[in-house]
Amino acid sequence: MKRLTLALLFATAAVIGACGDDDDSEDDPAIGQVGSVSENATYAFAEDGPDGLYDYLAEPLTAACTKEQLADALDGEPIPTGWRQTKDIEISGDGTATATVIVITEDGDIEQEWLFGLEGESWRITSVPGIEECA
């Protein structure tokens, strides 16, 4: 029984290891950068409301939308109290990315699709739920 358990353990590790060899996405630094921006933006939003989120928006959004307009656009959207996870990050070759951001709210976790754009060497938010009303 002990040999069978060890054999299964090694077989499972080999399968997991083989899966990782074909997927280079985990090695892409852009994935970590998008995840970091979404986490930091969520906590800034939780702490300072729309003003905190504003600092993470892409330049075309900030050019078209003031902090006051952003606050109006996000009125009625759930305000996060924290960040849970960023998953399903997809980086496109054109300098854009999508991700599912799980935010913590007073009413429970909410999954949201966020869009990002590369500005210079930094990822910035190009869309979050509700922001359409501002831009």
Polypeptide structure, described:
With 135 residues, the chain is an alpha+beta fold. The protein has a single domain, classed as Nuclear Transport Factor 2, Chain: A (Roll). Helices cover 44% and strands 28% of the residues. The protein contains five helices and four strands. It has helices at 2-22, 29-48, 50-54, 59-64, 67-74; strands spanning 82-91, 96-105, 108-119, 122-127. A four-stranded antiparallel sheet has the order 1-2-3-4. The longest helix is centred in the N-terminal third of the chain and has 21 residues, at 2-22. It is globular, with a radius of gyration of 19 Å. The N and C termini lie far apart (63 Å).
Which helices and strands occur, and which strands form pairs?
Elements: H1 2-22, H2 29-48, H3 50-54, H4 59-64, H5 67-74, E1 82-91, E2 96-105, E3 108-119, E4 122-127
Antiparallel strand pairs: 1-2, 2-3, 3-4
The total domain count is 1
Cα Rg: 19 Å
Main sheet, how many strands, which sense, barrel?
A: 4 strands, antiparallel
State the total count of DSSP E strands. Answer: 4
Question: How would you classify the helix and strand content by structural class?
Answer: alpha+beta
Query: Total number of helical segments?
Result: 5
Mean pLDDT: 84
The CATH topology is: Nuclear Transport Factor 2, Chain: A
What is the global morphology?
A: globular
Strand content: 25-35%
CATH class: Alpha Beta
Task: Enumerate the spans where pLDDT stays under 50 for 5 or more consecutive residues.
Answer: 1-24
Q: First CA to last CA: what distance?
A: 63 Å
Side-by-side strand order of the widest sheet: 1-2-3-4
Helix content: 40-55%
CATH architecture label name: Roll
N-to-C SSE string, H for helix and E for strand: HHHHHEEEE
